[in-house]
């Protein structure tokens, strides 16, 4: 026996209450012939005569009265399920979990969030700031609805969309010997110098090492490994050593002469910034709105 669908049960209950197939059909906004076909199919499915049809209308048979009672219980549970699902969906649609790599989180995401909140002030947003590898993991495992990364290669197992471009620069304090060079630094000189770098998994570090490898240069062991872009920048300002960071992170210090950019020959330090989300899912609601905001923002 095939289980009846909830709409056929709802129609049967209405016929029993209103005493008319036509009135029940009008209540459900379907045609009377369609309602009659559904009721006939329901009787065949259950193997029971549920209605007595007369010129004056319809009444339920004793079996139909019992089925109507059971149907009301089923429909109450179905309505409870649908109301609960709607409430849960509304709660989820008002919450957005974002994971972003350090540079994007510190210098781009705050502006995007501000614009999103203007359009959707009711959205509750949670931002996790980590490195690109951890962002990809958070998205894959459903811990973040949307992620932003700066790794040179888009990770596997996620959907990816290009957002904007970025450029990394070699930075030193004003008193560093490299500021007195009359020529660009060579990739070999940069690779032979212990640098202040981010931790493994950082898109900034991955891009730097990839760029050096592409020109045949192998970096020596780092001078310092730090877990945030701000910590790297502060260490360079304090004179601890040189580093390679996004121009976004260094822009204010470069403009105010706390840091100096050192040009490097033959080294491509441009990189794309990507949005990522769980593979196979279509972004909707606040997540789709934030992605659209990011892609509209000036590069």
UniProtKB/TrEMBL annotation:
Ranges for domain HTH lysR-type come to 4-61
tRNA-binding listed as a keyword: no
Gene3D superfamilies assigned to the protein according to its UniProt record, in alphabetical order: Periplasmic binding protein-like II, Winged helix-like DNA-binding domain superfamily/Winged helix DNA-binding domain
* Organism, scientific name: Saccharopolyspora mangrovi
Query: Which SUPFAM superfamilies has this protein been placed in?
Result: Periplasmic binding protein-like II (SSF53850), Winged helix' DNA-binding domain (SSF46785)
Know the name of this protein? LysR family transcriptional regulator
Q: Which family does it belong to?
A: Belongs to the LysR transcriptional regulatory family.
Instruction: Supply the alphabetized keyword list.
Output: DNA-binding, Transcription, Transcription regulation
Q: Please name the Pfam families in this protein's record.
A: HTH_1, LysR_substrate
Origin: domain of life: Bacteria
| UniProt key word Aminoacyl-tRNA synthetase | no
């Amino acid at each position: 026996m095939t289980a009846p669908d909830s709409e056929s049960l709802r129609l049967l209950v209405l016929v029993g209450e209103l005493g008319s197939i036509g009135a029940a059909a009008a209540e459900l906004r379907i045609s009377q012939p369609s309602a009659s076909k559904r009721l006939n199919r329901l009787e065949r499915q259950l193997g029971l005569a549920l209605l007595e049809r007369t010129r004056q209308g319809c009444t339920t048979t004793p079996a139909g009265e019992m089925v109507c009672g059971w149907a009301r219980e089923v429909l109450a549970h179905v309505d409870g399920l649908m109301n609960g699902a709607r409430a849960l969906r509304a709660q989820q649609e008002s919450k957005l979990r974002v994971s972003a790599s350090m540079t994007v989180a510190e210098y781009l995401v705050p502006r995007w969030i501000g614009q999103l909140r203007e359009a959707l002030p009711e959205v509750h947003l949670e931002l996790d700031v980590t490195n690109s590898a951890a962002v990809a993991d958070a998205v894959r495992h459903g811990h973040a609805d949307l992620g932003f990364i700066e790794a040179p290669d888009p990770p596997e197992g996620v959907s990816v969309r290009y957002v904007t471009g970025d450029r990394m620069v070699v930075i030193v304090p004003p008193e560093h010997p490299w500021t007195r060079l009359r020529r660009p630094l060579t990739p070999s000189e940069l690779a032979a110098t212990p640098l202040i770098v981010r931790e493994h998994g950082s898109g900034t570090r991955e891009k730097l090492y990839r760029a050096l490898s592409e020109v045949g240069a192998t970096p020596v062991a780092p001078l310092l490994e730090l877990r945030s872009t701000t910590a790297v920048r502060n260490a360079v300002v304090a004179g601890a050593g040189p580093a390679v960071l996004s121009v976004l992170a260094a822009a204010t210090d470069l403009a105010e002469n706390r840091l100096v950019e050192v040009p490097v020959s033959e080294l491509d330090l441009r990189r794309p910034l990507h949005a990522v989300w769980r593979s196979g899912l279509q972004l909707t609601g606040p997540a789709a709105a934030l992605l659209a905001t990011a892609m509209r923002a000036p590069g």
